[in-house]
Amino acid sequence: MASRGKTVQLHNMFVADFETCDAWPHLPGHSYPNQKVWLAGLKNLKTLETKVFTNLDDFMQEILKRGNNCNTEIAFHNLKFDGSYIVPWLLNNGYQVTHKKPQKGQFSVLIDERNAWYSITIQVTKKRRVLIWDSLKLFPCALEYLPEYYGTPTKKGQEDQAFYEMRREDDHEPTERELLYLENDLQVLAETLNEHIKIYGLRFKKTQASQAFYNFEQSFPAWKRRFPPLELELDRAIRKAYWGGLAHVNTIHKGQDRYDIGVYDINSSYPHQLAHRKMPYGRPLKQYGEGQHPDMSKFWAAEALVIFTLIPGKVPCIPTKAITEGKPITVEHWLEDSEGIVRMVFCNIDYQTIQQSYDFKVIRWCWSVHWAWKVHPELTKYINTNNDIKVTNKNLARSTDDLELRQEYLTKANKAKTDNNAFYGKFGEEIEKKGKTPYLVGGQTVYKCDRYEVVKEGKRRFLPLAIATTAWGRNQLVTMCNTLGEYFLYCDTDSVHFLRKGGQAKIEQAIREGIFEVDSTKLGAWKHEGNYKFGRYLRAKCYMEDDEVTCAGLPADPHTGRGSKVRSCCTRENFHIGLVIPGGNGKLRTVRTPTGNKLVPTDFEIKEHYSFI
User: Fold this and answer.
1) Which of 212, 285, 405, 464 is deepest in the core (most CB within 10 A)?
2) What CA–CA distances, in Å, run from 428 to 300, 327, 370, 388?
């Protein structure tokens, strides 16, 4: 993003943060008062010097000031919040929004149709550009847990709710306590970014997936020849065959108390599939038309008229998104019955998996597209090397008492794990991009979903590889679940929960028959994750095991650690569908005001169905 093709240097990189509160007086006719920035900080990554501002105007004038032609990069951790203040300011201060590369006095935003914020690019002069980007996309965790990435020393400050809700007048002078809180937040992000730059350099990618894919590209420079881009129409035709992870509660156990439970996980499921399963490649070999059965010796994606019913005791694995015509009226994500003939898009791997679980009949094949497939040694080498680094460094970390050395080992292990887990998804990235654009309408900022672009061929990936990866993952999971039968309780993407009495014998028999392999570190093997005395499974992404609660959308108790399952608001007495938790255990929802977003507490209800969107 630097002028004249030069990389932005460290002394032109910053981190920033806003502290906000209600602005008064409260305007009549509005449910919530306008918001204001009462404290803002800007920290330089090279000098670690901080500039403090007590209003948004002064902050914006600082980052947009003229006097040098150097491009600047500024990271906010959660741009969706802080950017909601910056965008209205730009629109109200003479800057024009554009869908194209900004010219002098213009800015562009990268906000997708799901309202995920990535960046704001402001062209200040012909030679100077300011890039404001979201570090949450690079480090996808709360600021509180950022020090865990590289073992950096500064920890986020903690304050009570009154601190956040306190009203600050326009002439408020920040206290030492308030300044320390801001400084800590800035320092946490600055330290993490500086350590990241030491590893990846100044031209690091701005999202975790992009960085992981870049690392993959360095190991396999000729990947585009092996995995060439698809034409737009072909991508559209087969995209419905790209399904996600399977999360499902066995209906006979749903909501019931169960005891003596075992849990197994697949070690790095998707990396394993990529490394050791046959994967498609190259240009399409052939296309069959109506009435022709696909060639089962090849990888294929097809559309067909089908009818299906779930076999009793089996796990459903056909998602509603696969149905392109005649979709059953249901709120379920995974279908048990087609309720008549439907039109469906699927791949050959899922075709095999489906027949484990359903009475499945193809009425007529509509079309199919075929690719060659094989195990790719380049993928195998890259993934196995990263897995070896992860396992080796985790073992070294466990064996040393030197805290600094332990952190070094853990950093290497986590980097290798992220590289393996995050890169494959870029192959499934949408090539039709839709996004939102901000406009001033009646003095208020309105976001319209009016941006549409098709990714240029040179920047497209290879969708069939992503389709095959997730399909193989579901195949391994469904095979385990169906083997367990009535003893199966719950599954989610790469894990299975089951009744040990009866279920453990099934697993051991399958191991003897060579169907499964159990190993604590081997890629793709099942790992015994643990046992629980008690479990209750309400729906996908919502269950209790002993005193641990997994519930998507419900925050864990504050300061209980990254990935915590401590939710003290849930007990064995109240943990049921329909439970309403006042205040949502700290859950916040976003309310938009003309000047910026406000976070307000909201209740949380455990509903019967989970939205996968």
Assistant:
1) 464
2) 16, 24, 18, 26
pLDDT tens digit sequence for 563-585? 899 999 999 999 999 999 999 99
Of 337, 338, 348, 344, the closest CA to residue 366 belongs to: 344
Rounded to 10°, the helix 403-422/377-399 angle is: 160
Residue 409, helix vs strand vs coil: helix
Query: 248-253: which pairs have CB atoms within 8 A and are 24 or more residues apart?
Result: 248/315, 248/316, 248/334, 248/481, 248/490, 248/491, 248/492, 248/540, 249/489, 249/490, 249/537, 249/538, 249/539, 249/540, 249/543, 250/315, 250/488, 250/489, 250/490, 250/537, 252/486, 253/489, 253/490, 253/537
Distance between start and end Cα atoms, the chain: 33
Summarised one tens digit per residue, pLDDT across range 344-396 is: 999 999 999 999 999 999 999 999 999 999 999 999 999 999 999 999 999 99
Residue type, 607: K
In 3D space, the residue among 41, 61, 47, 51 whose CA is nearest the CA of residue 11 turns out to be: 47
Nearest residue to 337 (alpha-carbon basis) of 360, 314, 309: 309
Cα separation, 463 vs 458, in Å, equals 14
Residue labelled with tokens 């990618």:
205
Taken as a whole, the chain contains a residue count of: 613
Structure tokens at 115: 């309202």
pTM: 0.94
Q: DSSP states of 432-473 as a string?
A: EEEEEEEEEETTEEEEEEEEEEE--GGG---HHHHHHHHHHH
Q: Are 474 and 483 in contact (CB under 8 A)?
A: no
- pLDDT tens per residue across span 268-277: 999 999 999 9
The answer to whether residues 278 and 375 touch, using CB atoms and an 8 Å cutoff, is yes
Virtual CA dihedral for 216, 219, 225, 230, nearest 10 degrees?
A: 0
Q: How far, in whole angstroms, is CA 229 from its chain's centroid?
A: 24
Partner residues linked to 434 by β-bridges: 452
Best CA proximity match to 357, nearest among 323, 396, 319, 403: 319
Closest CA to 239 of 481, 537, 462: 462
The encoded tokens of residue 54 equal: 């007590």
Q: Do the bridges between strand 129-134 and strand 72-76 make them parallel or antiparallel, or are there none, so unpaired?
A: parallel
Rounded to whole angstroms, the Cα distance separating 401 from 507 reads: 38
